[in-house]
Amino acid sequence: MSILEIIDALNNIIGLVLILISLFGGLYLFFIDPIRRWSFFGYFPTVVLALIDYKSKEILTIEYENKNALDKQLPQGSIYNSDILNAVENTIQRELGLDLKYIDLEYIKELGVLKSDDVKRLRKFQYGMLSLVPLVKGKGYILCICTVK
Q: How far apart are CA 124 and CA 121, in angstroms?
């Protein structure tokens, strides 16, 4: 083997290693985000808000008039993109009718997924995130602890 063939083979090996590192690095960065990971595997990401009022030392809940619903619930909302702050703002405005200027986002924690046992599955509507399955298998929950000013 000549020196040029050795350099060419070494160049090809280095190129292959760089391509593999880029591929696995990109997959790792994609799947480290729970919202993208859950969406990819068919779970609908949902934000759960725990609103803490430090003055009264209480967690604020929502009371529904519907008898089928639980008496008190934490506000929940769907996440349509990978922006948690936008999902929190939409949920606060929709569920509570408050502006985000009254809320401070303190802590975000991934809670996990809950598989739905419902036989009737909903079709999933994507808003820009890649998905492996077209049906919703369940929900993935992210807890956001917020303080009320």
A: 9
**Cα angle value 123/130/20 (rounded, 5°):** 150
Distance CA 104, CA 132 (A): 35
> Per-residue pLDDT tens for 14-64?
999 999 999 999 999 988 888 888 888 888 888 888 888 878 888 877 776
**What is each CA distance from 102 to 7, 53, 97, 98, in whole angstroms?**
64, 11, 11, 7
**Contact (CB, 8 A) for 137 and 92:** no
Q: Is the pLDDT of residue 87 over 80?
A: yes
pTM given for the model: 0.68
Share the mean pLDDT of the chain: 81
Query: Which residues, 6 or more positions from 11, have their beta carbon under 8 angstroms from its beta carbon?
Result: none
Q: Which of 5, 7, 25 is nearest to 15 (CA)?
A: 7
